[in-house]
Design brief:
Helix 4 packs antiparallel against helix 5. This protein has helices spanning about 15-25, 50-60, 85-95, 120-140, 150-170, 180-185, 205-210, 210-225, 240-245, 250-255, 265-275, 300-310, 310-315, 325-330, 335-340, and strands spanning about 1-5, 40-45, 65, 65-70, 100-105, 200-205, 230-235, 280-285, 290-295, 315-325, 345, 355-360. It is an alpha/beta fold. A hairpin with a 4-residue loop joins strand 8 and strand 9. The chain has a six-stranded mixed β-sheet, with helices on both faces. A three-stranded mixed β-sheet has the order 3-9-8. A three-stranded antiparallel β-sheet has the order 11-10-12.
Length: about 375
């Protein structure tokens, strides 16, 4: 399951956003067997309207969406890498995630105390980035130079570590260092925090949402100042998310329209995280269940089969594949086949988002 860590300084709206996610988790519990693994972890379903339509076609009441684990990484303050604010405990949680969602407060409000007594989004981002770099440097500092007749791989690892330490001591996170596939392979063992992709979540006020062009310009200006003009980001209002999650679907839609929004920030966060990590969903549908499965873009049919069961990849023969819209339009497999909409896919077939699949395996 995809894991996303939510980080940010105190009082930037991080916990408000996470609590809204937890409410979403409970609200959707009828469709997904949710769990809260710890007080700071929640499993949230990936919004996918196609599943309900598929379920109608195959006459099933059981829908299992893809899901994401969100970790609320609390306690990140200046000195977190040295244990301030329970920093080390929570930094270890981020190491288990695939993506960091960095919440940044972009609105000014003198009534909300800032941890540094000054509202400065650029400085806030740099504070968190520095703590993540220091934590990574601490991990890398534990590596020892190979002695004697060392293996070629060990020598390469040591050289890579030294190169990365030099860059990090200059304030450069690992993801901004020019690393080739060989470097990335040897660094995988360290699970570096600053090597993880980052999605910036700018927390705006409700008033700012009424002028999205202005707040977009403000957010892009912050990213330019930190040298990440092309970084992935979304703009949300944590307070609005907390309020809107309490409403029924139709009321949510009407409430969001006041701000020119078509979807909740939570849904946009989930979808953007999915896209930023290069993920897509393929679907299975039968009387037992309608289900979404997560794979990386570019995955082949056998690799997708392996997500369902590892033996399926090994014993893959072929797959019947039809796009979801065609499956729904023709009312299921038989008529979709008659209409020539079903592809008989072999081992080289590259999966597409929304593929409805029946795998044929030799087990």
């Amino acid at each position: 399951m995809l894991k996303v860590g939510i980080v940010g300084l105190p009082n930037v709206g991080k916990s408000t956003l996470f609590n809204a996610l937890l409410k979403k988790q409970v609200a959707d519990a009828a469709n997904y067997p949710f769990c809260t693994i710890e007080p700071n972890v929640g499993v949230i379903e990936v919004p996918d309207e196609r599943l309900a339509r598929l379920a109608e076609v195959v006459h099933t009441n059981k829908i299992i969406p893809a899901a994401i684990e969100f970790y609320d990484i609390a306690g990140l303050v200046k000195g977190a890498s040295e244990g301030e604010g329970l920093g080390n405990q929570f930094l270890s949680h981020i190491r288990e995630t695939a993506l960091i969602a960095h919440v940044v407060r972009i609105f000014e409000d003198k009534n909300i105390i800032h941890v540094d007594d000054e509202h400065n989004p650029v400085q806030d981002i740099q504070t968190i980035e520095t703590e993540l770099i220091l934590s990574d440097l601490n991990v890398l500092s534990k590596q020892k130079e190979p002695k004697g007749k060392a293996l070629k791989e060990d020598v390469f690892t040591w050289e890579t570590v030294q190169m990365l330490q030099k860059k990090m001591n200059e304030g450069v996170p690992a993801r901004k260092v020019d690393l080739n596939d060989e470097h990335l392979a040897t660094l995988k063992q360290f699970n570096l925090l600053t090597l993880k992709p980052v999605l910036y979540v700018f927390n705006a006020s409700e008033d700012e949402l009424l002028d999205m062009d202005a707040v977009e310009k403000k957010a892009r200006g912050v990213l330019e100042q930190i040298g990440e003009s092309n970084a992935a980001y979304i703009i949300v209002c944590a307070k609005l998310e907390s309020d809107v999650i309490e409403l029924e679907a139709l009321e949510q839609k009407e409430y969001l329209q006041q701000y020119g929004l078509k979807d909740t920030g939570l849904n946009r966060l989930i979808k953007t995280a999915y896209d930023h990590l290069g993920l897509l969903s393929f679907l299975t549908a039968g009387e037992k269940e309608a289900r979404a499965w997560t794979i990386s873009k570019g995955s082949t049919a056998p690799q997708a089969a392996g997500v369902i069961h590892t033996d399926f990849e090994k014993h893959f023969i072929k797959a019947d594949i039809v796009q979801c819209e065609a499956f729904i339009e023709y009312g299921g497999w038989p008529k979709a086949r008659e209409a020539g909409k079903v592809t008989l896919a072999g081992k080289e077939y590259v999966m597409q988002d929304g593929d409805v699949v029946e795998f044929k395996v030799g087990v």
